[in-house]
Design a protein that fits this description.
The complex is a heterodimer. By secondary structure, chain A is of the alpha/beta class. Chain A folds into two domains: 136 residues, Aspartate Aminotransferase, domain 1, CATH 3.90.1150.10; 226 residues, Type I PLP-dependent aspartate aminotransferase-like (Major domain) (Aspartate Aminotransferase, domain 2), CATH 3.40.640.10. Chain A is 41% helix and 13% strand. In chain A, the strands form four sheets. A seven-stranded mixed β-sheet of chain A has the order 2-10-9-8-7-3-4, sandwiched between helices. In chain A, strands 11-12-15-14 form a four-stranded antiparallel β-sheet. In chain A, helix 2 crosses helix 9, helix 4 packs across helix 8 and helix 10 packs parallel to helix 12. Among the domains of chain B are: 130 residues, D-amino Acid Aminotransferase, Chain A, domain 1; 69 residues, ATP-grasp fold, A domain (Dna Ligase, domain 1), CATH 3.30.1490.20. Chain B has 13 helices and 13 strands. In chain B, a hairpin with a 5-residue loop joins strand 12 and strand 13. The two termini of chain B are 23 Å apart. Classes of the chains: A alpha/beta, B alpha+beta. At the A-B interface, helix 1, helix 11 and helix 12 of A face helix 1, helix 7, helix 8, helix 9 and helix 10 of B.
Chain lengths: 420, 322
Amino acid sequence: MSNSSQKGTNFDQWLDSYAARANALSVSEVRALFAVVSRPEVVSLAGGMPYVHALPKELIARSFETLMADRGDLAIQYSGGQGDLKLRDQVRELMALEGIKSSVEDIVMTTGSQHGLDLISGLFLDKGDVVLAEGPSYVGAIGIFRHYEAHIEHVETDHDGIQPEALKETIARLKTHGRKIKFLYLVPNFANPSGVTLAEKRRAKIVEICRRNKILILEDNPYGLLYFDKQVPDALRSIDENVIYLGSFSKILAPGFRVGYVLAPPAIREKLVLAQESAILCPSMFSQSMISEYLSNSDWQGQIDTFRGVYRERRDAALEALAEHLPKLSTTHPDGGFYLWITLPDGIDSKAMLPLAVKELVAYTPGTAFYGDGSGHNKLRVCYSFPTPENIKVGIKRLATVINLQTELLETFSKKGATK
Amino acid sequence: MIPKPKAAAKLKIQVLAGGISHEREVSLKSGRRVADALTDAGASVVIREPDAALLANIRKDKPDVIWPVLHGASGEDGALRDILALTGVPFVGATAQGARLAWDKSIAKILVEREGVQTPASITLPKDAFRELDAQGVLKTVAASLALPVVVKPAKSGSALGVTIVRKADQLSRAMIDAYVYCDVAIIERYVAGTELAISIIDLGAGPIALPAVEIQPVDGQFGYQERYTAGETNYFVPARIKKTVAERAANMAIAVHEILGLRHLSRIDMIVDNKGVAWFLEANVLPGLTETSLLPQAVTAAGHSLGEVYLSLAQAAIRNR
């Protein structure tokens, strides 16, 4: 058919110039479907958005006014690469609530804990290195590990979190194959996406297994203070000073500030600060100062208590609606945080079902997003943090309709040849 | 050549973008591109969502013309166009009736075939039809009748969402399920191998004009959602690398389809030209994608026009033939 050697266009003249790791960056229909989530008709059980309406804006306004009056010029200036000393001291007190003893010298403020995770990954991961993670694990962490071309190996996880025996076996197997394991990444409290908390009795075991195998632990703990009834066990970092601990103000205050922190052993902390300075010079001094002011002059513990009440009510609404509309489905029962993890009937692919859900005006996150190995087809994450309890009930009811329609469709076409 | 827009007072244009369809994100991207181009061409533009405030916004903005850039059901199934017609404000694009005929691919195929346009053999199967029948048996018969490979697609959907090329019989069930999550009616169509073309049509009132055909060559073979909207994943050739006579036949076919379906100011007709040079109609797009990687803007630019001028000319045409 061709009658010329005419050159076409692909809208990207730099295609041959990108780093190999950029190949993983592309649009997807799932991401596009999430665009409808912003419409008020849709009940979004997808994105993990904190319910910031429960934070009185006067508190923020007051912090701003005081900050501008007292040290406005400093707040809008560059800061040191390690972050504001006063806020680091406050972070030290915050971490003490979870049994962590630390020095301000070893704390690094970051642009959300996501940035801390990225910096650490940049320091440690070479192409092909192994990262151990819970199965399922946080989608944002998987994205970073993939970006650094690491291999993500999920370790068997149950209702008490990651299984020590499975961890041991996984490490042994990988070592037999000569793989280089760089770290174990964990969200030990009210994990994203499962909502599961690592049992106290397992924590020391996990630390000991990693210590024995010289595997660094990355403890990512954005939800630990958002427990509903019982405080979570002490952090893994309280057991071993070699654990890298990541914290965040996104869930206990507001994500718009983009302020997180890393507590790292001195040698790693040193490199972390250099890496941060090289990447962004310094974290936002304005955001840090605002948070510092808020922590100094507001009842922030009372505010966290308010958040706990808000999320408990929403968790209850989600569980009640699931019991009413989807009583046969298996789901986790989180004691804090934002998420429920649902296992669908055999054969249902949550990613393939999502367009139908959007049509029925409900959104969730498909399970495959939380695995680095493509598994999780029959799982989905429900995030109950943002919609009102009434809307959560409406959303779960719609989700039930969707699952029932999809089940019926699968039955119609029989299971033979109907799974990917 | 498309005539340049007439010099006139600054037009107040309301661009409608977003909506609640599966193609909301594409619509928002398209809408912002159209708004930018119209602003560059001298229009006063406001972008609005087609939501509960639609009518109130029309009253408030008092636009001279509405430019709907809505993909998917919310903009292409005709319903919104019926409502816009009721407001009395002229709007760009197909009337409600034209949109309805084109939006349902199974209807569009029947209508154009009746007028002698070639379209691949197909069968249209509502989801409900399978409830009472032996689904596997039906699919087996269909596969035998059409011969694999076949293309399974939702009867009403865009951006290749829910579309699967089925090469093995055991993939057919999954493909049907994937199509039914987008629409309760699916089409199983004979697969035609060849050169994939998109021909955009513009009609400013003096009759439809076919813009240069865009040849689509996805790097990985299939022109799916990702390949449509990710720069670098598809190679485009404008004009298409086909013989002049074939290009003319394809353009004539595109114009015929545009007229048969009554798509008024603009459309994009997608087709496959097989290795004998025969153009096969696949579908008509009521509101073609207008993003930075979309096909109509490529054709407009290849024809030597500026996007802003063409979009403004379309707005003026809508006002003239309200």
